[in-house]
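Ticket #4471: structure export looks truncated?
Reporter: QA, pipeline team
Priority: medium

Steps to reproduce: submit the single chain below to the structure queue and open the exported record.
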Amino acid sequence: MNIFRFAGDLSHVFAIIILLLKIWKTRSCAGISGKSQILFAVVYLTRYLDLFTTYVSLYNSVMKVLFLATSGATVYLMYVKFKATYDHNHDSFRIEFLLVPCALLALVINHEFTVMEVLWTFSIYLESVAILPQLFLVSRTGEAESITSHYLFALGSYRALYLLNWVYRYMVESHYDLIAIFAGVVQTVLYCDFFYLYITKVLKGKKLQLPA
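Actual output as written to the record:
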């Protein structure tokens, strides 16, 4: 554990809180990609299957339960409780184009060819691109609400902070994980255009608009 990883985890939790509060308070999931939320749920399910078999620390276990529970709750709110407010028409990204390549890549490039390791690797690859349906939805609708923009910024900050975590671990512990670093770089790059627009638009009180 180091300050960058801890800050990244806090940013991740903050993003989830923003999202759930947005949906619950407005009683609507408009502007939120259900497909991205399904992908994130798949990420946590495949990554944290070791919850009941491997104990690392109380902090680690609590975070695993938190991410599993909140991702499930988000999917439930979007597809069951507030289903009528979900924008099916604009949320049309073909997630099979992300799931299949990530699965194949995990089978080919992994640290160890075991079920748990391949699933963990798959979750790393999938998380790096899971935000694409959300960015696609924003580009199709033309703009994002401020609260949705805050959610995306917090989520992107989480991955950027985790990259700093890997730099720190390499410098201090001489430890690195090429798969996690590569996926983190890909995910952070996907957010770059959004970060720029967030800083130049949203923080100045304007609506965020992504190019179609």
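Status: closed, not a bug. The export was complete when the record was re-opened. Leaving a note from the reviewer for reference: The longest helix spans residues 146-173.
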